[in-house]
Amino acid sequence: MEILRIITQDVIKVYISRITAARASGLDKILNFVLKALKDLLTEPLERIFNRCLKLAYHLKYFRDAITVALRKADKDNYTLADNYRPIALLNILKKVLEAVIAEKIINAAEAHNLLSRTQMGVRRERFIVITLQLITEQATTV
Hints:
By secondary structure, this protein is mainly α. It contains six helices and two strands, in the order H-H-H-H-E-E-H-H. Helices cover 50% and strands 10% of the residues. The radius of gyration is 20 Å and the shape is flat.
């Protein structure tokens, strides 16, 4: 039985194109600029892997692993104190691509089926400050 093609190669290419080339890699050691350079070769196998994950409702252990590093905060006097560092999780780049695709699918479905409140602003397209101010004005005048 053919896997239901929920995620297409074209969508994967779009998300790989959006990746910032000069970022640190995760445990997978895949450099962003290498993934971007090889996207035409990799999208077909990634399409199979991503759609298989969705079909099986399985999140690969490979995608769940991360490495955490401590970065020094700028302009601190004493780096022997833990508060002068901030932890950064370095995630596998393929996990980021898959999760970005799924997140957009969820957002699109929620928008298409009017599942979000009119006052929900976060993670929504074309929700600008003007709309937020209009909603606040409406609420202030109805009180």
